[in-house]
Write a structure and sequence with these properties.
The structure is a single chain. This protein is of the alpha+beta class. It has one domain (about 1-85): Ubiquitin-like (UB roll) (Roll). It has 3 helices and 5 strands. The chain has helices at about 10-15, 25-35, 40-45; strands at about 1-5, 20, 55-60, 60-65, 80-85. The chain has a 5-stranded mixed beta sheet. Strand 3 and strand 4 (about 60-65) form a beta hairpin. About 20% of the residues are buried.
Length: about 90
């Protein structure tokens, strides 16, 4: 099973504990991770279910390529890391 983890920064704003999911794509992994957690889903994904501009996802250390359909493949024991992109100066 793949592991979906969220940064401590995100966890300060929304309840999103790490979760192990069976998934072949990032979309499937996030759908499973957000099942029953509409608040976390709305924080990470927009109303079209695409990744929000201020969010970044890494799969096994590589940035997700498909931010709209979230079709990037996930390995059976993959690690998905969800974090907020930071800006400022």
């Amino acid at each position: 099973m793949a592991r979906v983890s969220f940064t401590p920064t995100l966890q300060r704003h929304i309840a999103c504990p790490p979760v192990d999911v069976a998934a072949a794509t990032v979309r499937e992994a996030l759908d499973a991770a957000f099942a029953g957690n509409a608040r976390a889903r709305a924080y990470v994904l927009d109303d079209q279910s695409a990744l929000r501009k201020h969010m970044v996802i890494f799969i096994d250390g590589k940035r997700v390529q498909d931010r709209v359909n979230l079709s990037d493949p996930v390995l059976e024991n993959g690690e998905i890391f969800v974090l907020q992109a930071l800006s400022g100066g």
